[in-house]
Amino acid sequence: MAAPHAPHTRRARTLLLLLTALAAALACHHLPAQDDTFLWDSIRLLQDMAPRPTQPCHHQRDALSFPDTLLQTHHPQQAATAALRILQHLFAVLSSPSTPQQWDDHARHRLLNSLQHYIHHLEKCLLANGMLSKGQRPRNQLLAINRYFADIQAFLRAHNHSACAWDHVRRRARACFQDVDTLLKQMK
Prior knowledge:
Elements: H1 6-29, H2 31-49, H3 76-94, H4 105-128, H5 139-158, H6 163-187
Helix pairs in contact: 1-4, 2-4, 2-6, 3-4, 3-5, 3-6
């Protein structure tokens, strides 16, 4: 009796495969349009949310430099997972309750909402394309990103979350957004 249902089962499987492919295409469909404005809008919001420090800050400029080797990947999967991880860490750092009181909360919340929205779409795209499975992640790359952001947290703690330390971190975040832009271009 299973034989009469076999053509329906094959059609159902074929339809399921087509719907899965369509869902993957739709999940990533909006990323290119957002890529053009998201990162530069984020940099503008990052600038808007923090006034210039009233006192000069004398922190080492290269104390928190991002590992350039992470930007030299030619694999779209590695570029995408690195961009996602960087954005997730930026969200965690910038959503900290220890950010300076003089920062503009409205601009900061707009930046965090935009970041969260973009992270969600990027995760959805990577999952739909099978690029976010644990077995495929480049371990050393993600460890280096985690270490970089752990250094940022340590830098903030070492400087008692001062306005100057946060200004330095904000400048590093700006550089990270530019790095993410590079990674997303490699992803395409």
